[in-house]
Write a structure and sequence with these properties.
Elements (H helix, E strand, L loop, with lengths): L1 H23 L9 H15 L4 E5 L5 E4 L14 H10 L3 E2 L3 E2 L6 E11 L2 E11 H10 L7 E5 L5 E4 L12 H9 L5 E4 L5 E8 L6 E7 H53 L11 H38 L1 E7 L5 E3 L1 H7 L7 H7 L3 H17 L3 E8 L5 E12 L5 E10 L1 H69 L4 H31 L8 E4 H15 L5 E7 L6 E4 L1 H17 L4 E12 L3 E10 L21 H7 L5 H11 L3 E6 L5 E11 L14 E5 L3 H13 L3 E5 L2 H13 L6 E5 L7 H10 L7 E7 L3 H7 L7 E5 L3 H12 L23 E5 L3 H13 L3 E5 L2 H10 L5 E5 L7 H9 L9 E5 L4 H9 L4 E4 L4 H13 L5 E2 L19 H7 L4 H15 L2 H10 L3 H18 L2 H16 L2 H26 L5
Parallel strand pairs: 18-20, 24-25, 24-26, 26-27, 27-28, 29-30, 29-31, 31-32, 32-33, 33-34
Antiparallel strand pairs: 1-2, 1-6, 3-5, 4-5, 5-6, 7-8, 7-11, 9-10, 10-11, 12-13, 12-16, 14-15, 15-16, 17-19, 19-23, 20-21, 21-23, 22-23
Helix pairs in contact: 6-7, 11-12, 11-22, 12-16, 13-14, 14-16, 17-21, 18-19, 23-24, 28-32, 29-30, 29-32, 30-31, 31-32
């Protein structure tokens, strides 16, 4: 009775827990909708009729809602804080003991559960039961008369009792509590308060931990027991008499039934069919039926075993594997049918007889030792041995066996298998033979392949030598053509003859470019092209690209513009030469195939991990386009869209192929998207490493108002973007007329612009015409004006705008960095660079007093070089090969320098240089490699041969002077010919190079002294610009600014006005930390220095006229 009541109590509390868990999973918790939760709690409690109330509390025990109070009422803290802490600590449901409610002030127990949100306990939820729920539980139990029952919690506090008359929560009697603590599960006596002795039993509810006690007064129990004993005695006497008669009758029937079961049992043991005779009681009948079922089961199993035996015999026969079994101490070996067949015997003899009958003596010794180890240690036996059949034939057998153990794990026998593996052994031997033959064949073929490889390498070396020789043989007459054509162009000839000379020069240079492409491609194919990993400026690369595009579009109605990502870093690490080569190929391709429309170059940047950046160069043109059928082959060598393209536009068809190979070497990609007649889009993607920032970020001039006047919408937009990004107010106009109207409107409203970007060539009214009209308007003050013009028309633009006070000429296409730097320089009041200086005239004698030894085997080349050097004032001695050059250095006085061709008969330039260096006093003599293949790949071999530097044919005086100057200042340093100037040509003005008349007044007209100072300036300050650039690269902006300051001061004294102004502007931006603009200005400063040196040289007579 007590256990039943305990289970009912647990069921009641489990129902409450289920309700609590259902409430805790309400969807309103996700939205913290407490009013909805309050309504839901009340509704569920009313429908379930399980709990009395529900309370929701936070971590500190503050009640958030209580179903006994309206929502929003002020509520006290939870009355059972220990339960709250337990729920937040464990996150597990729990059943409390009795406690007094904080709101109801009544005794109750509760089921406490957590409310989990986002994986964490967010609230404590308790569903409580007042003690009347426990009273109702006791009333539902049917107890015998005079029996009593009670319920109390794990702390001994009474919750309910059948007799009533208790105060909920009061403690049970000490005797009852002691029995509870002692865990007694038998009956014991407890004395009630009225003196009645109760015979009681206590049971703990297994889930809740509460307790149920059931008892009966002892006196009632004893009276009832006495009465039952008397009644039971009479019944026993009656039953004894009746049992004796029944026993005789039943014994007779049992004996007959047992006899009927004896015969079937004997038949069952023998495995015979079972026949059951009639029996006379149910138990015997059950035995008979069981025996019959057992007989049927045994028959079925015997049939299955026979089938399995047949399957086993078949499997052993097919797999040629038999089995055997042997008991220790026995002479009998039980073997399967397949084992006997394998050995050709009816039975397998005992082990003692097997030694001579089934195995050779040496084989038996090995098998016997293995079987012995298995029988003594339990080690598995696994052998491949040769066995003998009864006919005397031998065969290969695979023996496996294991130990048989009894219930005490003792070895009592062996069992195993034996398999005929003769076929497998024959196959293995055949495979080994084939393997040996294959190894011999592989060795033979490897030798043949090595010989073929050596032959191929030899052929490749021969091809490389042939290519180098043919390169020399092709380029030598070609350079003669170029050199003679340049000399012809410098001579006084008629316009028609000059036109012919220009065409010859253009054709020769185009042929030279094709030969260079072929040589580059051959180096890439041979894997001899190595990439560099050095810091370089992306802005410088883009400036060169812009220059090539601008020059290429001189005679075409094509608008070119650059769209550069503002996040582009200036300094990156990689191979600048190869990156520039890819960009120039793509740029030249766009220029070549675009006759009208536009070319847009876009650069997108995306940061990558590890300090790298992904660059995406997009060249989009409106040219002839590419047919879809040619898109897959456009990057193959010697490929253009079709043969008509080659005839019309020329080219070797190698530019894109080289670009693809270079992109692969740089681990980048290059692709094309095009439609005929709609232009092409080439995309080149590559990842480079970011370089260290070269200085602080420059803050742009604040508050500028910029007016942009350009008829091309894309150019207008791309010019506006960097200005807007700099924080400037930008106004754009699409024509000169609307620009003039905007100038008048802004002047009338007092909203004058600070800078005006004005395109020269526009339909209707051009930029120069607009400026003239604007200058003619009384009272109209123009902003600082940058006149934008195609790169090939700078001189014309300077001429037509000479009287219009243009602040600066800017060559299109403009890069964002160049644009911002140009506007900054204009606002600072600094002059721009000069127009490109005219080439040296034919009577330029800058090499006067120098004595050169020229080693060159080609007579025409000798003539070109001798005329070039002699025309510049130098004396020349010629040598036709390296041996003659060595002899000349042995007999002649000291030469200024030796120009050494590389490939010559008798003795080449390498050997000649080494012999010259071996002579006394010749260690410091400049020996310049005079070669058509002055590429970086050859520099190391030139340096190792002892050469001082490299200068490429055809010879240029400016390059030679720069080389000699570099060697004079750095005698131990290997020097190469300077590459083409990549300085920004995006802004042009007309300054004064040397104002000698003004400066002479400061020297009292003392021209000799002034000229001497000019010469001293050339000797002491000409390297200052390079030194400033080096300091800037080393992040020493202060040192670079100091050099610029000193250069500006000296230049002002000497009347070098342009140099002084650019040097001052450079000093300002260096002190401001604007390293990007400083780089642009240093390029301009270098050009200005060179032009000043030319002016000084002409004045002081260093190069006589």
């Amino acid at each position: 009775m007590a256990k039943t009541l305990a289970l009912s109590l647990d069921n009641e509390l489990i129902d409450v827990r289920n309700v609590a868990l259902a409430l805790a999973s309400s969807g309103h918790f996700a939205n913290r909708d407490l009013p909805a939760l309050h309504r839901q709690f009340i509704d569920l409690l009313q429908k379930s009729d399980v709990g009395s109330l529900a309370v929701l509390s936070d971590r500190d025990g503050r009640q958030l809602l209580n179903t006994q109070q309206p929502f929003g009422a002020v509520l006290p803290r939870h009355a059972n804080p220990a339960a709250v802490r337990q729920i937040f600590a464990t996150g597990q449901p729990a059943i409390s003991g009795l406690y007094i409610g904080a709101v109801s002030r009544r005794a109750l127990a509760s089921v406490d559960v957590p409310v989990v949100l986002d994986g964490k306990v967010a609230y404590h939820l308790s569903v409580g039961l007042f003690t009347d729920k426990f009273d109702a539980l006791l009333r539902r139990q049917t107890l015998p008369a005079n029996w009593e029952a009670g319920i109390f919690d794990g702390e001994g506090k009474l919750a309910a009792r059948t007799l009533g008359g208790i105060i909920a929560g009061e403690k049970v009697s000490p005797a009852l509590w002691k029995a509870t603590v002692d865990g007694r599960d038998d009956m014991f006596d407890v004395t009630r308060r009225d003196g009645t002795v109760m015979r009681s039993v206590i049971t703990a509810a297994p889930v809740s931990g509460w307790h149920v006690v059931v008892g009966i007064p002892r006196v009632i129990l004893e009276d009832d027991l006495q009465q039952r004993i008397s009644q039971f005695g009479g019944v026993l006497l009656l039953m004894f008499g009746s049992g004796m008669g029944l026993a005789w009758f039943m014994g007779n029937r049992i004996a007959r039934s047992v006899n009927a079961l004896t015969a079937p049992a004997i038949a069952l043991e023998a495995g015979d069919s079972v026949q059951i005779s009639p029996v006379y009681f149910r138990e015997a009948e059950d035995v008979a039926l069981a025996m019959a079922g057992t007989a049927r089961l045994l028959a079925t199993r015997q049939r299955v075993l026979r089938e399995r035996d047949i399957e086993l015999v078949t499997a052993q026969r097919l797999s040629r594997m038999g089995s055997w079994n042997w008991t220790l101490g026995s002479e009998v070996v039980r073997a399967s049918e397949e084992t006997c067949r394998m050995f050709g015997r009816a039975t397998i003899p005992a082990f003692a007889a097997q030694k001579h009958a089934m195995f050779a003596p040496d084989v038996w010794d090995v098998l016997e030792q293995a079987l012995y180890r298995t029988a003594t240690t339990g080690e598995l036996c696994d052998l491949e041995i040769q066995a003998r059949r009864s006919t005397g034939d031998t065969f290969w057998a695979h023996y496996c066996c294991e130990a048989i153990r009894d219930s005490r794990h003792r070895i009592v026998g062996l069992r195993g298998t034996v398999q005929d593996i003769s076929e497998r052994k024959r196959a293995q031997n055949e495979l080994d033979r084939y393997r040996n033959d294959l190894e011999a064949l592989v060795t033979s073929r490897t030798i043949e392949l090595e010989q073929a490889r050596d032959a191929a390498e030899s052929a490749n070396r021969a091809k490389s030598d042939f290519l180098a020789t043919m390169s020399h043989e092709l380029r030598t007459p070609l350079h003669a053509v170029i050199g003679l054509t340049r000399l012809l162009g410098a001579a006084p000839i008629s316009p028609r003859q000059r036109d012919h000379a220009d065409n010859i020069l253009l054709s020769a240079e185009a042929l030279q470019t094709m030969i260079d492409d072929i040589l580059d491609f051959s180096r890439i194919e041979a894997g001899k092209l190595q990439l560099e990993h050095l810091p370089f400026s992306l802005n410088a690369i883009l400036r060169t690209t812009a220059t090539v595009i601008g020059i290429g579009l001189v005679d075409k109605p094509v608008e070119a513009c650059f769209d550069i990502d503002p996040d582009m870093p200036d300094l990156v690490l990689g191979d600048s030469l190869r990156l520039q080569q890819v960009l120039l190929n793509l740029a030249s391709n766009a220029v070549k195939f675009t006759d009208a429309g536009s070319i847009i170059v876009q650069l997108l940047c995306e940061p990558r991990a590890g300090g790298r950046i992904a660059l995406k160069f997009i060249f989009r043109d409106s040219g002839i386009g590419i047919p879809a059928a040619q898109l897959d082959t456009i990057f193959e060598q010697f490929t253009q869209a079709d043969t008509s393209t080659t005839r019309r536009y020329g080219g070797s068809g190698l530019g894109l192929a080289i670009s693809r190979r270079l992109a692969d070497l740089m681990r980048g990609t290059i692709s094309v998207d095009s439609q005929p007649g709609q232009g092409s889009t080439f995309c080149f993607c590559v990842e480079l490493e970011r370089g260290a920032p070269s200085g602080p970020v420059v803050r742009p001039i604040a508050g500028l108002r910029v007016l942009i006047i350009d008829d091309h919408p894309v150019t207008r937009d791309l010019l506006a973007r960097p200005c807007i990004a700099a924080g400037w107010q930008v106004t754009t106009c699409d024509s000169a007329a609307s620009g003039l109207a905007e100038l008048q409107r802004s002047a009338a409203n007092g909203e004058d612009h600070d800078v005006m970007l004005l395109d020269w060539q526009m339909p209707g009214m051009d930029g120069v015409t607009m400026l003239r009209q604007a200058r003619a308007i009384d009272g109209l003050l123009l902003p600082a004006t940058l006149l934008m013009t195609p790169m090939g028309m700078l001189e014309q633009a300077a001429a037509v705008s000479a009287d219009l006070f243009v602040d600066r000429l800017a060559a299109k296409p403009l890069l964002p960095a160049t644009l911002l730097a140009t506007i900054r320089q204009t606002c600072l009041g600094e002059l721009g660079t000069l127009l490109p200086a005219l080439a040296a005239t034919a009577d330029d004698r800058r090499l006067a007093g120098m004595h050169f030894l020229v080693a060159e085997d080609n007579v025409i080349n000798q003539m070109v070089i001798e005329q070039t050097l002699s025309g510049a004032g130098a004396s020349v001695e010629l040598a036709s090969n390296g041996q003659d050059a060595v002899a000349a250095t042995q007999r002649a006085s000291r030469f200024t320098a030796v120009l050494m061709d590389i490939r010559m008969p008798v003795m080449d330039g390498y050997e000649a240089t080494r012999l010259i260096r071996a002579q006394p006093g010749m260690a410091s003599l400049p020996v310049l490699a005079l070669t058509a293949s002055a590429r970086r790949q050859d520099h190391e071999s030139f340096r190792q041969a002892g050469m001082s530097g490299v200068i490429a044919k055809p010879l240029a005086i400016a390059d030679l002077l720069a080389m000699l100057d570099s060697l004079a200042r750095h005698p131990g340093q290997f020097t190469m010919q300077a590459t083409a100037d990549t300085a920004d040509t995006g802004d042009i003005a007309v300054p004064v190079i040397l104002n000698a008349d003004h400066a002479l007044r400061a020297f009292g007209g003392d021209a000799p002294t002034f000229d001497a100072l000019l010469q001293q300036f050339m000797l002491t300050c000409s390297d200052d610009v390079r030194r400033a650039g080096s300091l800037l690269m080393e992040d020493d902006s202060a040192g670079a600014a100091a050099l610029a300051h000193g250069l500006a001061g000296t230049a002002r004294i000497l009347g070098a006005e342009q140099l002084a102004r650019i040097a001052s502007a450079t000093e300002v931006v260096l002190l401001d930390g604007d390293t990007e603009t400083a780089g642009v200005l240093l390029d301009e400063l270098q050009v200005a220095m060179q032009q000043l040196q030319q002016a000084i040289s002409r004045r002081t007579g260093l190069l006589t006229n």
